[in-house]
Amino acid sequence: MRILIADDSIVSRHLLDATLRKWGYEVVVACDGLEAWNALKQDDAPRIAILDWVMPGLTGPEVCKRLREHSKGSPSAAYTYLLLLSSKSQREDLIEGLESGADDYLTKPFDQHELKVRLRAGTRIIDLQRELLAAREELREQATKDFLTRLWNRSSILDILQRELTRAARENRQVGVVLADLDRFKNVNDTFGHFAGDAVLREFSRRMLASMRPYDSIGRYGGEEFLIILPGCDESCTASQGERMRAALANEPMLINDARHLVTGSFGGTSWRPGVPAQAENLIRVADNALYMAKNQGRNRVVVLPPA
């Protein structure tokens, strides 16, 4: 655990530094309030800070107040436990320090045992917040991602499509929409079993992600059907991106039950352009018609149609 100590007194700094290092902490030192503030607003800042009350540049309470204001706009920011250290011991001073955003308060000269207990409480708070953030992230994943493939789920990919259409209308650019479907996937389940079918879906997802651009999006639309969003793509670009994904699937057999089998997919796409109503349902309907044509033409191909 890293701890920031900020004190303009060299004697006090050295005493704190030696004590904390003896207890196994990694220490970051600041000589005034401004230096402490600059260190604490960094992304990799220490999660515990011991601040002297009176310092040049900024006082300890001023650093506390700035840090709490800075963190307000970022609910997912890691919490920083702030401990004020001062020779002031009046009740009014204690209230002022805590109202500035400090978590606790120690008077000088500090008692080592009391400091150790305060730091232990701070560590528990930080660990608890880390666990809460991890739990919240896990719940967000469960709400927005498909459990099997870890791609966006249906509602999330539809939200992304609507967002990209709104942005494209504002920026006067196009958006490609592709529906992909695994060919004869029912045969995989019937022949090799559903566990093998799940493995095929996961491998398909991995290959699609590897062949897409960083700003493209893909989600499981239903069963073995996937919706792909291609920002900035006209019909030609949508066709070439679809062909890249088709080849990523068809050019390398998959390992199914210890044997190599070729799995292919059909891709139907369209592209929204400014001047056409930006209705997600219509674009998906056109992409679905293109997918139906790709299936009828022999599968393992890409068909792109203009928007209705």
What report would you give on this structure?
The chain is of the alpha/beta class and 308 residues long. It has two domains: 2-139, 3-Layer(aba) Sandwich (Rossmann fold); 154-304, Reverse transcriptase/Diguanylate cyclase domain (Alpha-Beta Plaits). Helix content is 50%, strand content 20%. The strands form three sheets. A five-stranded parallel sheet has the order 2-1-3-4-5, with helices on both faces. α1 (10-22) links the parallel β1 (2-6) and β2 (26-30). The radius of gyration is 29 Å and the shape is elongated. The protein starts with a strand and ends with a strand.
Search tags:
308 residues, alpha/beta, Rossmann fold, Alpha-Beta Plaits, 2 domains, five-stranded parallel β-sheet, elongated
Shape: elongated
Secondary-structure-based class equals alpha/beta
Radius of gyration: 29 Å
Strand content: 15-25%
Mean pLDDT: 92
Write the H/E string, N to C. Answer: EHEHEHEHEHHEHHEEHEEEHE
Q: What's the quick description here?
A:
The chain is an alpha/beta fold. The protein has two domains: 2-139, Rossmann fold, CATH 3.40.50; 154-304, Reverse transcriptase/Diguanylate cyclase domain (Alpha-Beta Plaits, 2-Layer Sandwich). The chain has helices spanning 10-22, 33-40, 60-72, 91-99, 112-144, 154-171, 185-192, 194-211, 235-250, 280-296; strands at 2-6, 26-30, 48-52, 81-86, 104-107, 175-182, 217-222, 225-231, 254-256, 259-261, 265-272, 302-304.
